Structure formats: C-alpha cells, structure tokens
Amino acid sequence: MSRIRFLFVGKNEDAEYARGIARYVERTARFVKAEVVIVREEKPGSKPDVPRVLAAEAVRVGKELDPRDLLVSCDEHGPERTSAELAKDLRRWLDASPRSVSFLVGGAFGIDPSLLRKSRAILPLSRLTLPHQLARLVLCEQVYRAMATLHGVAYAK
C-alpha cells in the first residue's frame, strides 16, 4: 500500500506551524499512511556556496528515497494547479503504486537540480514567496484536502 511522505529540509523551529503540520498529517493518515521526514540542512557558512549546499542536501534527501518512490518537488517553476487538479494528480500518483508519494520542500536555497530532474512532478504552492514553515503547512493542508476530496469527505472551501 502506498503512503505519503513529506520530506522537509531543515528543522521546524516554530511550534505553531509544527502543530498545524502535525494536525494535517494526522488527518491525512485517516486515508493513507502519512509521515514527515526532516532532512538535515547543510550549513551555508559565511560565504554560501549555493551549488555545494544544494548538492549536500540532495545527497541527504536521496538517502530518504527508495527507487520506487514517486517524488513531487515543491518549486515555483512548475505548472500551477487548483486544489481539484491536485486531487486528480494525487489519485493518479497513488494509482501508479509507488512505495510512497514523497513531497519535497527544499531548504533555504531551494532544491538541487538533480532532484528536480528526478521528480515526477513539480508543484508550486503559490506565486507568492512563502516562508518555509508556511509552505510546509500549506502543502500538508492541500494534500489533506486532496485526500478528503478523493474519499468524498466534506471539507470547507
């Protein structure tokens, strides 16, 4: 049976966001096994070498992925979706019988291009710039909304 994994680069240091994320992951788990995996972010140093930071984080993310995982990377450059379109895509991804559908939110510098190339889909969360913690919360809420829609559960619009 497939599961949903949320791969987040870097710690969640805000308790309010953490509670919201936990709430939506728990709600999603009513429909499918769901979990959050925190991947250690690379320390950038005083003069950040962005390609080095991204490559190091990509190695850590790669260790969390199984070859049978379907990776969905949250990045601003993908095609925008409505919540209904995300639900249809999620249904299709789950029907592909991966070990998991793994949603990735990168660290401060984003996601390494190698991971973007491995991704089955790129999912922008907003055209606005969002703090990482808020992006994580929005993602978890939208995945819960999609699962509720797929299971015919009424959810406020």
Structure explained in plain terms:
The protein has helices at 15-28, 50-64, 83-95, 113-118, 132-150; strands at residues 3-9, 33-39, 70-74, 100-105, 121-122. Helix content is 43%, strand content 17%. The protein has a 5-stranded parallel sheet with strand order 2-1-4-3-5. With 157 residues, it is an alpha/beta fold.
Give the helix/strand layout.
Elements: E1 3-9, H1 15-28, E2 33-39, H2 50-64, E3 70-74, H3 83-95, E4 100-105, H4 113-118, E5 121-122, H5 132-150
Parallel strand pairs: 1-2, 1-4, 3-4, 3-5
Quickly list its features.
157 residues; alpha/beta; 5 strands; Alpha/beta knot; 43% helix; five-stranded parallel beta sheet
| Class based on secondary structure composition and strand pairing | alpha/beta
Percent range for helical residues?
40-55%
Into which percentage range does the β-strand content fall?
A: 15-25%
Gyration radius over CA: 15 Å
Largest sheet: 5 strands, parallel
Assembly status: single chain
At the fourth level of CATH, the homologous superfamily is: SPOUT methyltransferase, trefoil knot domain
N-to-C span = 29 Å
How many domains in all? 1
Helix segment tally: 5
CATH class group:
Alpha Beta
* Uncertain segments: none
CATH architecture: 3-Layer(aba) Sandwich
Strand elements, count = 5
**Can you tell me the CATH topology?**
Alpha/beta knot
Task: Please outline what is shown here.
This protein is an alpha/beta fold. Helices cover 43% and strands 17% of the residues.
